[in-house]
From TrEMBL:
UniProt entry keywords in alphabetical sequence: Coiled coil, Heme, Iron, Metal-binding, Repeat, Signal, WD repeat
Signal peptide: 1-21
Residue ranges, compositional bias (Low complexity): 545-557
Compositionally biased intervals (Basic and acidic residues): 531-542
All residue ranges annotated as the Cytochrome c domain in the record: 36-126
Record region (Disordered): 531-557
Pfam families per record: PSCyt1, WD40
Intervals holding WD repeats: 300-341, 342-383
Coiled-coil zones: 477-515
Protein name: WD-40 repeat protein
């Protein structure tokens, strides 16, 4: 194994935790006290575990009261990690109750102090005694950045951070078959096999972004690490040599090369924590290597024919392998112990893929079927015909779907239960490889003719192609410049077509807008006429109310005048009667007064005439009484005259009021008459305005119909705009592509030496 080159880190690339405790300077911190099996751990095992795990009662074939037996492990393999990793030691995990079955069974976990001793013992290398030396292996940048989770890693997407050469290592006139294809799980990056080279294409634009030399021969397997930072390439020369190379995606440099086969590597994979590489090929051997040292961890001769498919489960626990004689085996990844032997296929196993949760294994075969296997009991849960003639490749997606391709030249997309969701257009030749990019939601398939096809997974739309034999940089630049010229012409033509149709629609729209403005004018005129009519109706209503009030007043005044006139007549009659009575009482008074005067005269002649005196006295009384009567009647006449005068004054006043009210009534009636005439004229004008509005609306509606784009015109405009957008995008793309090519055209090829 001395020829295998281990991965050695430069100090500049070192990451926290990548250097073991043995490599640290003694000046960093005081040396920790050694924790040993004999002194510290054996007493714990005897007290807590010895009753079940001793030489006589070794449950699960695990003995813990003997150092050598404990380090050997039990039926499920090694339980104590000797590389200083308690988290990878099954014994420590069950003792801390972080994994099942918990130990000791049915009891609380050990005291923290004892667990801490076990942890430190494993961390220091699981030493037997004070004279033992730890054999902790040096960690590297590969394992230090490992991520076995299927979740997106923190930080930027794993894309090349430096410009990579795009000059092909070998330029061929014809494309060779796509023997390997992989999509980065977290970045828009596609790896495609080429002769003596690996081509990195941008998964979105399908532009070549880098060429990784592979002088060892033809790559037959390409896989990205679970965190997308490392690319595994396996291949070689048929019947001569084979190996696996690990590339750093950010720099394009080689990190390691593993294996030294006497035939090409047909299948390989990198474990999720990037500590192991499994490979196989025509020699029928499954070999698993440690990445950190390049040393062979274990190998298996189980397969009886070429090993054609290999993949670690996402959780890193299991390893699936398939061969050309329908052999399908699941192994314990870190021990190499056989886990399941799965039978059912009747043809070569061409590919295997794990579901993201590691619970289901999919296998594709030359028998045309895809079979799904559950890992609880190793049973087959689904079997469906996928490709007539044979399934060549398949891939579980992160959203738990399956893409596949085969000899029928049709790439297909299935759900997790094997129900077909979509067929993609047939490839030119037999489908060889397939993958899915979650970053672009696209499916990619490579065929025997050397073309890689890209489709939208959502609708199956064709995106484009890339090839396994890209042209030289000079040819790429010339092609890009030609494409740029064509794109400029397309942009000009597409822009003219869009503007022409837009102008037609704009002119019709302008006419429609003018008609719409006329509708607004007519509506304003109608509103003005309506407002004037309403105002006039309101004014007439007010006049009618006033007229009604005045007529009520006139009626009341007339009634009052009639009553006063009648009262005057009564008063005049009474006054005349009183005047006649006054005349009578005055005449009676005068008569009595004259009789009194005669009586007095007679009395003067006969002063002693008693009778005459009595007569005079009697007459004087009567005169006085008559005078009183006259005064009384005169007072009544005077009072009645006053009453009559007041009534006559009231009559005069009411005559004036009646005259004024009649004048107001006449005025209001005149206003009503003229108002009705005006209202009639306004109503006529309003009807004319309403008809004008109706005409304007009909004209506007007609123009709007003309102005609105028909479905054909909408479709035509959308097509022209889409063509313009596509042409503009292509123009920008080719401008950028030319800039990129010119920037990297003189870059030297990447070294094929492993980084040390």
């Amino acid at each position: 194994m001395g020829r295998f080159l281990p991965i050695l880190l430069t100090m500049a690339m070192a990451v926290p935790g990548a250097i073991s405790a043995q490599e640290k300077s003694s000046d960093d911190k005081p040396q920790e006290k050694k924790i040993t099996y004999d002194e510290h751990i054996l007493p714990i095992f005897r007290e807590k575990c010895g009753s079940c795990h001793n030489a006589n009662d070794k449950k699960g074939d695990l003995v813990l009261d003997n150092y050598s037996a404990a380090m050997q492990g039990g039926a499920s393999g090694e339980v104590i990690n000797t590389n200083g990793e308690p988290a990878n030691s099954q014994l420590y995990l069950v003792m801390t109750h972080e994994s099942e079955p918990i130990m000791p069974p049915g009891q609380p976990r050990l005291p923290d102090a004892q667990l801490e001793l076990v942890r430190k013992w494993i961390e220091q290398g699981a030493l037997q005694n004070s004279g033992s030396k730890a054999k902790i292996k040096k960690k590297t940048v590969v394992t230090a950045s490992a991520a076995s989770s299927m979740k997106r890693p923190d930080g930027p997407a794993p894309m090349p951070e430096v410009a990579l050469p795009i000059e092909p290592v070998v330029v061929t006139s014809r494309a060779n078959a796509v023997t390997a294809l992989a999509a980065n799980p977290w970045a828009p990056l596609l790896a495609v096999s080429g002769y003596k080279q690996i081509l990195l294409y941008h998964a979105q634009t399908l532009d070549l972004v880098g060429v990784l030399p592979f002088p060892e021969g033809q790559p037959h397997i390409l896989k990205f690490s679970r965190n997308g930072s490392v690319l595994l390439a396996g291949g070689g020369r048929g019947g001569q040599s084979g190996l696996v190379v690990l590339f750093d995606i950010k720099t394009g440099r080689r990190l390691a090369q593993v294996g030294s086969e006497y035939d090409t590597v047909l299948a390989a994979d990198l474990s999720p924590d990037m500590s192991l590489v499994a490979l196989g090929g025509p020699k029928k051997m499954l070999r698993v290597y440690e990445v950190s040292t390049g040393e062979l961890l274990y190998e298996s001769k189980k397969h009886t024919d070429w090993v054609t498919a290999i993949e670690f489960s996402p959780d890193g626990v299991l390893l699936a392998t398939g061969d050309r004689s329908n052999g399908l085996v699941v192994w314990e990844a870190y021990t190499g112990r056989e886990f399941y032997f799965l039978t059912g296929h009747t043809g070569s196993i061409n590919d295997v893929s794990w579901s993201p949760d590691s619970n289901t294994l999919a296998s594709g075969s030359e028998d045309g079927t895809i079979r799904l296997w559950e890992m609880q009991n190793g049973g087959q849960i689904k079997n469906f015909n996928a490709h007539g003639g044979g399934v060549q490749a398949l891939d579980f997606t992160l959203d738990v779907r399956i893409v596949s391709t085969g000899r029928d030249r049709v790439t297909k997309l299935f759900d997790a239960n094997g129900n077909k969701q979509r067929d993609f257009p047939a490839t030119q030749d037999v489908g060889m490889e397939v993958c899915y990019s979650g970053e672009t939601d696209r499916v990619y398939a490579g065929d025997m003719a050397g073309r890689v096809y890209a489709w939208n997974a959502k609708d199956g739309a064709v995106i484009g192609q890339c090839v396994t034999n890209p042209a030289s940089v000079t040819a790429q630049l010339a092609a890009a410049q030609a494409e740029l010229t064509g794109s400029q012409q397309k942009v000009t033509a597409a822009n003219e077509a869009v503007e022409s149709l837009r102008k037609q629609l704009a002119d019709r729209q302008k006419a429609a807008e003018e008609a719409g403005k006329m509708v607004g004018i007519r509506e304003a005129e109608l509103n003005a006429k309506n407002e004037a009519k309403t105002a006039k109706q309101s004014d007439m209503s007010r006049v009618e109310q006033q007229l009604g009030g005045m007529k009520q007043q006139l009626s009341k005044q007339q009634q009052d005048f009639d009553q006063t006139t009648k009262a005057l007549e009564v008063a005049m009659t009474k006054l005349n009667g009183q005047k006649g009575e006054l005349q009578k009482v005055r005449e009676a008074f005068d008569t009595t007064q004259k009789a009194l005067e005669n009586a007095r005269n007679s009395l003067n002649g006969d002063a002693e005439n008693a009778d005459q005196k009595n007569i005079v006295s009697d007459l004087e009384g009567k005169v006085k009484s008559a005078k009183d009567q006259v005064d009384l009647v005169e007072a009544a006449v005077k009072e009645q005259v006053t009453t009559v005068s007041g009534l006559e004054k009231q009559i005069d006043e009411r005559k004036q009021a009646l005259a004024a009210i009649k004048t107001e009534v006449n005025t209001l009636e005149g206003k009503l008459t003229s108002g009705r005439d005006e209202l009639k004229a306004l109503d006529s004008a309003r009807n004319n305005a309403e008809q004008a509005l109706k005409n304007a609306r009909m004209e506007a509606e007609q123009r709007m119909k003309t102005a609105s784009a028909t479905e054909d015109e909408k479709k035509q405009l959308a097509e022209r705009e889409a063509a313009l957008k596509t042409a503009q995008e292509l123009l920008v793309r080719w401008q950028g592509r030319i800039t990129t090519i010119e920037a990297v055209r003189n870059l030297p090829p990447l070294s094929t030496a492993v980084v040390e």
